[in-house]
Amino acid sequence: MPTTRLTHWSALSPYGPTSAHFHTGVTAAATAAGAVPDFEIRTALGRSGTRSMDRVTALAVAAIGDLIAQPGATGLVDSRTAIVLGTTAGSVASTMRFTRDSLTEDRPYLVDPARFPNTVMNCAAGRSAIWHKLRGPNATVAGGRAAGLMAVNYARRLLATGRADTVVVGAAEELSSERSRIDPHTDGSTGAPLSEGAGVFLMHRAEDTDATTGLELIGPVYTRMVPEADAGAVAIEEATRALTRADLDPASVQSIAVTGPLDLGDRALEVFPDAGAVLRPEDRIGDTGAAASIFALALLAQRHDTPVPGMLRSNAPAPGVPRSSTSVPGMLLAGIALVFAYDEHNLVTAVVRVRGGFR
């Protein structure tokens, strides 16, 4: 089955403004929530071109800049590189503030026109492309917590149809008082504190790269609308079908990552007996909205130099010790993994192969 690979990566998260902070936080089993610490737009990106830039755009621009500056990535990115970003609704803060100003400011409705582009959902993807001079296909995929996986599938289609050879794919979400006011009125709360962040990967056709680290997407990403009460059972059914299409045995699944209000129940470990613990980015960094499923992918691909209970396991756990509680230094959650995202009745399922851990 044709596959694509996600190789280089970058992340800004509540752990800190770099992927190194994310790696350190995950491998230390630390928890964090809220805004990206020490991230000021003008400090990170400079004063030029940032006067009217909103926070979600700045997070995306910074993450992509870190990605394409990495050793090995520079030669893979050119002007034809595509960008696909996941979002919930763009910048909720920008939309609500601009709308309020248009109603409350003195006639003739003295709003700041420079801030109008921030109200459009594809602002972050568009400005990122302009900032980094990437002239390939540019797309924004709206899907809440599932947006990251949906963006990965869109990027896969760009590669499969020859529209692009390399895609920067990911998602971003900002933390704001406006988002905090809206969140209690939306379905599917995870109970995790609201957070923000951005994560991006460099994605290629599998045959075009010999990278030994990162993730390999096996087949397409599957999407299905399902009521929350049935979501757990349907997720297992969807994953089983996806594995069958890929000629993989359910027993080959080594790890599972889930984001959103999705409870797989005990049935998951019956169907996927070697899967170990179910990982949730919300347990580590809070509810990062559209970026959540990208962080779920990033969680799976972190190489650990020290044992991390609940994250890694040996193939032969000690007697009386649960499989998901043991680990071996230098191991990672290797092999076949399932990734689920669920938001507003939208269930998204992906099968990936972890090829080697990011550091």
TrEMBL record:
UniProt pathway annotation: Lipid metabolism; mycolic acid biosynthesis
Record GO biological process: fatty acid biosynthetic process
InterPro entries: Beta-ketoacyl_synthase (IPR000794), Ketoacyl_synth_N (IPR014030), Thiolase-like (IPR016039)
Domain of life: Bacteria
Annotated GO MF terms: 3-oxoacyl-[acyl-carrier-protein] synthase activity
Keywords of the record: Transferase
SUPFAM superfamilies documented for this protein: Thiolase-like
Domain Beta-ketoacyl synthase-like N-terminal: 47-179
Keyword Transferase: yes
Entry protein name: Beta-ketoacyl synthase-like N-terminal domain-containing protein
Organism annotation: Nocardia terpenica
Higher taxonomy: Bacteria, Bacillati, Actinomycetota, Actinomycetes, Mycobacteriales
